[in-house]
Design goal:
By secondary structure, the protein is of the alpha+beta class. It has four helices and 14 strands.
Amino acid sequence: MSNKMKSWFESLVWTIVVVLIIRALFIQAYEIPTGSMEDTLLPGDFLLVAKFTYGIQIPYTHVKILDFHRPDRKDVVVFNYPLEPKKDFVKRCIGLPGDTIEIKNKVVYINGKPLDEPYVVHKDPRVFPPLMDLDNPLAREEYQRAWEERRFMGQNRVRDNFGPVVVPQGNIFVMGDNRDYSLDSRFWGPLPMKFLKGSPLIIYFSWDKEQPLYAFWKKIRWGRLFKILLWI
């Protein structure tokens, strides 16, 4: 191998190593696959995610090397879906450890106070009744246990009337902004903070999957390109 070829090969190897390190520890690309975060994030949005926001993990594990801080309420977070950790989800943090979460007729209450949520959309006018009567303290204990054990999967009646439940330590409560069409903590329970991957930084590309490929200029959502997501 000539010196020139050897130098080129070494440069290529180092470039690949640096890119892999950046992807593993700092920045990752992510595509929004569903409408659960509409109208904040749309299907076909491509994001850059800051993986260091809440700490730095050993790649491909949930072991943190550095732990910076936990999410705040209303932060949009990217995380491994607890039931299928190889899948990445994006939702909004609603409740922190120790918070009491309750939903009454689609209105979220945190520690007894209604949460101001200008980002939320409701696209289904129906309001499902509560799953069960929680006036009995024993019923509340069973409800909390069922929620933590992820037994509400497929139970539509927790969509609009939910809780109250207390978010366990080391966990957060997340929901989609498209509140009527989001698979989130109401159904699959609390999110362990060790599953957090980071926070979205910017939409670097966006296209409308409903538009045909030949309508290229219409397919690209030009107004969403390079939209900063730090304060959504």
